[in-house]
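Notes from the pairing session

We agreed to fold both candidates in a single pass and log them together. This is the raw record for the first candidate, unedited. Please don't reformat it; downstream parsing expects exactly this layout.

Candidate A
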Amino acid sequence: METFRRIPTHIGIIPDGNRRWAQQRGYAKGDGYGYGVAPGFELYRTMIEYGVKEATFYGFTKDNNKRAVDQREAFTKACVDAVGLLSGKDANLLVVGNTDSPAFPQKLKPYANHRVHFGRGLIDLNFFVNYDWEWDLKNLEEHKQLASHDISRVDLIIRWGGRRRLSGFLPVQSVYADFYTIDDYWPDYQKSQFLNALSWYQDCDVTLGG
């Protein structure tokens, strides 16, 4: 096991590139989402191995609902399947998203916007389902706290798929996060990609504006 002197307490994960991965292989765009479930659990095990305390995964956003129906159905199913599998793991799950919208899957409402404890609770896992950054901030205005208020400040964000943007990912908690991009598509996840991100993080100075 590789050793690091600094481990981010909270890591954000943007698992992008599922549709491009599918197209590259001659599949329908929506087929890529199902192939993205298993990599998430491989990464979950690695984060526990290295002592990461909290991780936030982008499932799907309000804007993703503009996609074709078959794609919406595919990424919704992938999110439901992921949570179902997670219920047998050792994690404290928080699903964050707008449950008032018909786009939020009914099967995930029991886990929505409050933390549910599974097994030994070795890591806090936050999962965005029908998340919208404007909805998150609007809650602050109306109720004096973010909808995502139970999520801590993010130290490192890792994005697969080669894009270099936040895509609305936790605008408040990400204010001082370091950002690492991986060109490979998410379904092609490898443990070495994550370890490379941790290695890169070792040289990031934490000034918090100072």
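Candidate B (folded immediately after A)
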Amino acid sequence: MILNASAIPIPSEVTLPFAGFLVSQGSLTLLFVIITGILGDLVGSMIGYSIGYFLEENLLLSLIRKYGKLILVTEDDYQKLQVGSKNMGAR
């Protein structure tokens, strides 16, 4: 869940059904799976937010150019996000 919320393409549609299977087998408790799923999503979101907040734009763009294919983000995607966030702030 942390990786999924950090924008790394590990879908929760794979991890959560497996966790549900383990709950049905008695290996895990439902409460444990719910709490760890929520905490994982929260921590992953905080990581993604922190990366965007603290990194300078030039460093972020260079990381996207270098590793963007690994996390499925292009420089064009980043520019679209910038324009969209500026338009939302004007409302």
